[in-house]
Amino acid sequence: MTTLMQFKDVDVHYGPIQALKKVSLTIDEGEIVTLIGANGAGKSTLLMSIFGQPRISSGEIIYRGEDISQKSAHYVASNGLAQSPEGRRIFPSMSVEENLLMGTIPIGMEHAEKDMQRMFEMFPRLLERRNQRASTMSGGEQQMLAIARALMSRPKLLLLDEPSLGLAPIIVKQIFQILKDVASTGMTIFLVEQNANHALKLANRGYVMVNGEIKLTGTGAELLVNPEVREAYLGGH
Ligand SMILES: Nc1ncnc2c1ncn2[C@@H]1O[C@H](COP(=O)(O)OP(=O)(O)O)[C@@H](O)[C@H]1O
Ligand SMILES: [Mg+2]
After folding, report:
1. How far is the CA of 127 from the centre of ligand 2 (A)?
2. pLDDT in tens, 135-178
3. Ligand nearest to the CA of 163
4. Read out DSSP for 187-210?
5. Largest CA distance in the chain
C-alpha cells in the first residue's frame, strides 16, 4: 500500500483554543477512510488545515512525500486534492454547468468539456439541470453538484465534509451510493461524517475524533461493532 496522505502529530489552535491535539492519521492510495465525531470535535478543522486554512501550529501534513502544511491553498488544489466542503458552498447564482467549470480552475480548462460529460454520465440529474441556477436545486442535487465540482479537478484524493448533512434519509442513501460508485473508479476518499453508521459501512478504515483528539481507529467493520462507538454515535444499539 502506498501512503497518499499522513497527518503526524498535528496541533491546531484558534487563538487560545486548541482545536486539534497531536492528530495522526494515514490515508493509503485507493482507500476510503472516514473520520467520525460529534459536532465541534474538530473534523472540519482537520480537513481545512490541508488547505492551510487554518494553518497548523505544529506537526506535519505529508502528501505524496512532501510536507504541504505551509503551502498555499492553490498549490494544494493544483496537486490533486479537492474537497466538497461542509454546507456544499456551491455558487448559488451560477448554473450547474458554470459551477462545474469552476471546479477546473486548479488544473485549467483543457479537459473541461470531456470531464463535464463524464460528470453528466455519473450524475444524470445534473445533466437534466445543466442550465439551472444551482440555488434552485434540492439539497441532494446541490450535494451531487459539490461532489462533481470537486471531481472536475481530477483529484487523487477526494475530501468530503459531511455530504449527508441536512439531507433526508433516502437522499443520504443515494449520496452514499454515489460515493461507492466514485470509489469503484479507484478514487481515494477521505470522508468526514457525523453519520457514523453510513460512513463506517462505506469505509475501509475509520478514525473517531473526540474534542480534537483521535480516540479510536480500526476497520469500518470493527468500529461499527465497537461498544464505545455504538454507545456514542449509533444510538447504543
Ligand atoms: N474559525 C474559528 N475560530 C474559532 N474557533 C473555531 C473556528 N472554527 C472552529 N472553531 C472551534 O473549533 C472546534 C472544532 O470545530 P470544527 O472543526 O468545526 O468541528 P466539527 O467539524 O467536528 O464540527 C469547535 O470548538 C469550534 O467552535
Ligand atoms: Mg464540521
Report:
1. 29
2. 999 999 999 999 999 999 999 999 999 999 999 999 999 999 99
3. 2
4. -EEEEEES-HHHHHHH-SEEEEEE
5. 51
What residue ranges do the domains of the chain occupy? 1-79+156-237, 81-155
Cα 168 to Cα 226: distance, rounded to the nearest angstrom: 26
Site to probe by mutation for ligand 1, drawn from 11, 45, 208 as the one with most ligand atoms within 8 Å of Cβ, is 45
pLDDT for residue 229 is more than 70: yes
Q: Is the pLDDT of residue 236 over 80?
A: no
Average pLDDT over residues 25-41: 97
- CATH superfamily label, 1-79+156-237: P-loop containing nucleotide triphosphate hydrolases (3.40.50.300)
Helix (H) or strand (E) holding 150: helix 139-151
Instruction: Tell me, in angstroms, the distance from the centre of ligand 2 to residue 39's CA.
Output: 7
* Nearest alpha carbon, ligand 1 atom 7: 14
201-227 mean pLDDT: 97
User: Which tens digits make up the pLDDT trace of 17-30?
Assistant: 999 999 999 999 99
Question: Which listed ligand is nearest to 45 at the C-alpha?
Answer: 1
Angle, in degrees to the nearest 10, between helices 112-122 and 169-184: 130
Evaluated on CA atoms 34, 59, 42, 223, the torsion sign reads positive
Which residue lies with its CA nearest to atom 12 of ligand 1?
19
